[in-house]
Amino acid sequence: RAEDESTDERVFSCEMIFFRKKVPRDHLPMLVEKLPVWALGLVLVVYVVLVACSFALGIVASPSEWDTHSVSSWQCPYSEFNDSTRFNAAQCIGDDLSNGGTWEGSVVGVSKMNQVLLLKASVMNLLHQQEGVQKHLGFNVELRGRTSETADIEVIYANDVHYHDLVCPEDQLYCDDATLVYLPFVSYYEYDVSVSLNSTEETFVGDIVFTFVLVDYYYTMFEIWFRFGFLMLSFLSLIVLTFNLRNNPWDQWSSEQQWVAILLFGTMAYDNPFFSLQILVQGWFFPLLDQFFMVTYIALLLLFLIITLDSLRKPLRSFLRGHWLKVIIVGSIWLICLVAGIIVETKQVGSLEYGSPSEIPFHDDIFLVVVILTGIYLFYLIYIYIRCFKIIRRVGRTLGKRMLFFIVTSTFVIITAIVGIIVSFTNPSSFQVSIFLSYLAIFNLYTAVLAIMYMPWAWGQVQGPIRDRRFGSSASRVPTKDDETFRENETDISLEVIEDVSSK
After folding, report:
1. What is the rounded distance in angstroms from the CA atom of residue 266 to the CA atom of residue 296?
2. Threshold 0.85, pTM exceeds
3. What beta strand segments (E) does 333-485 contain?
4. Alpha-carbon gap, residue 83 to 85, rounded angstroms
5. Is there a contact between 225 and 206 (Cβ–Cβ < 8 Å)?
6. Statement: residue 61 has pLDDT above 60
7. What are φ and ψ of residue 284, in 5° steps?
8. CA 361 – CA 364 distance, rounded (Å)
9. Whether 104 contacts 192, CB under 8 Å
10. Helical axes 397-426 vs 432-453, angle rounded to 10°
């Protein structure tokens, strides 16, 4: 019976295979296999606490993401002598756009650190007590800018007509916002805007509130430094992992060590080392690169979890033969999200009145397809989870800890990754800074924890190439089965043995 339990542990601890022929591996036991259960639990608690602290930091200590400046097309300071919903030239200052007036506004002191500039209009619905209104309304917009206080004014575009489908719910005084200007890159120190209505026959139009929206300067600095800090964390984690495995060839690393090394590169891409260039350099390349990095890392994370779990529960001779369905599901999610990201970035760069991702063509269809594919992935993942938990009860304690630690940490991360895919379409405004900082902490700390847990346990023992005194002290060679110093990890056995036991 003891022999059977030992065999079961070896059956279910097989490594993932990337080639048709398994290469024997010579790696020392990993830290996750040697630490007691309470120490692994403490690592998980510290990880969750750090993520929670990052979310709290985003709420309490972070600057606001948006810097807004609002002004009405008219102001009536003596409301006791005047109906504030109707323009009265004797009592009000400003311009009544419903009667052919033109609103002039400007924003000064803008820099590249503000990243984007938006101008939104909120129209007062004079009929809000009677009925809701849905109208296709046109705005004449002229935008001008100057690079400094002493520079000449330059016309960015003149008298362009922007049409918007205004939605004015009943019993709501102001209609939903309409984006009149969207500039994904800030190139001027001062922006001046002139706005008038294309039609003066709309009786429901009252006052109009115009709002300039820019990314806050201090939020940009906050984002740059935190991206850089987590980028350094992932880089140092990669250095620590590779340094401790420096004497082992790649094909002698465990599957978890290989995947974590790849994930660390993906995490550094997610942190976007080119983010500063995205702010400073005008164009479509760096925004698209940011979308590619983000979508690719999330897809890589989804693939990592489902393949690793499935490989722990059954032996496979070929990577593609065993995981082709998983690759298709995750690859489809990656491709659709990447195409949607490209469409959004293209519309942002090419449209001066971009409002939100919901305005892109086939937004609802793309969202529905992503939800369906994500649901298929989740059901497949739950099925593998159930099979893995059945296996954990049958294997030995060492492998059980290794599997359980991976399952718990990855489950916490994968839920946030799936939520991130869905949230990217809805573009939430509440807790935006906290969500941004939490995602950085979740992904970077996750790969850092795995890099530490999958390091070799005994750093002082001989690994990889060993000295051969027959060829001099400077010669080295890869150890073989005949070497006394060669020792196999207790959870590594040949594929032939695994298949033989599995068939029984």
Report:
1. 8
2. no
3. 466-467, 476-477
4. 5
5. no
6. yes
7. -95, -15
8. 8
9. yes
10. 160
Q: Which residues pair with 146 in a beta bridge?
A: 190
Other C-beta atoms lying within 10 Å of the C-beta of residue 192: 18
In terms of Cβ atoms closer than 10 Å to its own Cβ (0-12, 13-18, 19+), residue 129 is: exposed
Tokens for 159, please give them: 């008298």
* Residues 333 and 377 sit within 8 Å (Cβ to Cβ): yes
User: What number of other Cβ atoms are within 10 A of residue 495's Cβ?
Assistant: 16
DSSP 98: G
* 175 pLDDT higher than 70: yes
Share of residues in the chain with pLDDT > 70 (%):
73
DSSP 152-194: PPEEEEEEEEEEEEEEE-TT-SBPPPEEEEEESS---SEEEEE
Whole-angstrom distance, CA of residue 15 vs CA of residue 308: 9
Give the range among 26-35, 132-141, 368-377 with minimum mean pLDDT.
Answer: 26-35
Q: In what order do the strands lie in the sheet with 133-146?
A: 103-108, 190-197, 133-146, 154-168
Report residue 212's pLDDT band, with 50, 70 and 90 as the boundaries. very high
Q: How far is Cα of residue 373 from the mean position of the Cα atoms in its chain?
A: 18
What lies within 8 Å, CB to CB, of 497 at 6+ separation is 10
Gyration radius of the chain's alpha carbons: 30
Residue 236 CA to residue 242 CA, distance in Å, equals 10
Compute φ and ψ for 330, nearest 5 degrees.
-70, -40
Give me the sign of the Cα torsion angle 109, 112, 113, 115: positive
Q: Tokens standing for 145?
A: 């800018």
Distance CA 74, CA 103 (A): 9
Q: Are 233 and 443 in contact (CB under 8 A)?
A: no
Nearest Cα neighbor of 30 from 259, 297, 265, 315 is 259
For the chain, counts of helices (H) and of strands (E): 12, 12
Paired residues of 139 in beta bridges: 162, 197
- Report the C-alpha gap between 205 and 87 in whole angstroms: 11
CB-neighbour burial class of residue 264 (10 A; exposed 0-12, middle 13-18, buried 19+): buried
Q: CA 182, 226, 70 angle in degrees (round to 5)?
A: 30
Q: Does the structure show a pLDDT above 70 at 444? A: yes
| pLDDT of res. 473 | 34
How far is residue 247's CA from residue 233's CA, in Å, rounded to a whole number? Answer: 23
The helix (H) or strand (E) run that includes residue 146 is strand 133-146
**Is the Cα dihedral 160, 166, 171, 174 positive or negative?**
negative
